[in-house]
Write a structure and sequence with these properties.
five-stranded mixed β-sheet
């Protein structure tokens, strides 16, 4: 009798799984798009080193980080000729992947690169000068199940800031 009971439970469980799998329509063949980050402020106390206060969300488990696009004009920064060029951030411990809520992060632009310091979510290894326009985009790794290929899905541009002169 006991084995009959376990067989019945297994049968009901398998039927429920098959029913759920066949009726689930919560999937999409299109790529997920991430929301662009928002730059709140940019400050500099030393030439070439900039601190950015950014409001962003990390919406997916496959969230990969951020990319910085510097340029001589606002239009070139927001619309680079190739979105694969730019400076990827070196993630710090202060940048969690979840939860999916906007959080304020501290980013750095530092010519030496290296690991992000305490309280810094990511560091862009770039040598930039005052007057350079900067824009940030978020990156999400996407997997195509039909072709087994993976590639980055890049968000739209953030707002654009001009890097300031160092303040005393």
């Amino acid at each position: 009798m006991k084995s009959y009971y376990y067989s019945l439970i297994r049968f009901v469980l398998i039927c429920n799984i098959l029913l759920f799998a066949s009726t689930c329509t919560n999937y999409s063949a299109s790529r997920s798009r991430t929301a662009p980050p928002i730059i709140i402020s940019v400050a500099s106390t030393v030439t070439g080193i900039y601190t950015l206060q950014v409001r962003a969300q990390n919406p997916e488990l496959l969230f990969s980080g951020y990319r910085l696009y510097p340029a001589a004009t606002e239009n070139e920064s927001r619309n680079p000729p190739d979105v694969n060029i730019g400076f990827d951030c070196l993630r710090g411990a202060a940048q969690p992947t979840i939860p999916n809520i906007p959080v304020e992060f501290i980013f750095e632009i530092h010519p030496d690169g290296g690991a992000a310091g305490p309280g810094v979510a990511c560091r862009f290894p770039a040598s930039l000068s005052p007057g350079t326009f900067i824009t940030i985009r978020s990156l999400l790794f996407g997997i195509n199940l039909t072709s087994s290929n993976g590639s980055f899905s890049i968000s739209g541009p953030s707002n654009t800031f001009v890097l300031p002169n160092p303040s005393p």
